[in-house]
Amino acid sequence: MSIVAGPIYQVAWVVEDIETSERVFTEQLGVMRWNRMPNVAFTPETASYRGQPADYVIHVSLGYLGDQQIELIQPVSGTNLYTEFLDRNGGGGLHHTAWLVDNLVETLKIAAAADIPVNQQGDFGEEMKFAYLDFSAGGAPYVELMQLGPNMRAFFDSMCAASKASV
Q: Which N-terminal stretch is annotated as signal sequence (predicted)?
């Protein structure tokens, strides 16, 4: 059974300076509208990193190229997959592609059966659950699996529509 199906929902970069990266992505790729969410906090109750409770803060900015969600992540504090990536890759770079799944728990069981490690996971209650799978053995970036609740899906859809309207 496949872990993911359908189109890639999101392409994400980890960056050192989110404001500069927004400007570059606007000028060079044409992402015309950004929705920045500063100081997104994850706690040991809502996130884990390499199997241990995690406590970190990130800045997130979401934009769209057509229907393709573009995510920029800037680590602010704490140790996590994003700080690890910056330490390994200097100024940042392409970090992950993401797919939507209907049931994250069941999809992670499939990944576990295939010996695919989960490096980080977390949630925003019932509205969004996510996990990063490590595909580095095959030379690929991380794969993020996202399970969205109806309010988060509507939020993302409204951002996409607003982005298309601003073109």
A: none
Tens digits of per-residue pLDDT, 77-100? Answer: 999 999 999 999 888 999 999 999
Report residue 162 as tokens.
């607003």
In order of their start, the domains of the chain are: 10-165 (3.10.180.10)
| Residue-wise burial string across 86-109, b where 16 or more C-beta atoms lie within 10 A, e elsewhere | beeeeebeebbbbbbbeebeebbe
- The residues, ordered by sequence, that sit 6+ positions from 66 with a Cβ below 8 Å of its Cβ are 164
**pTM of the predicted model, to two decimals?**
0.95
For residues 144 and 85, what is the distance between their CA atoms, to the nearest angstrom? 15
Cα(8)–Cα(41) distance, integer angstroms? 26
Q: 123 CB contacts (<8 Å, ≥6 apart)? A: 46, 47, 129, 130
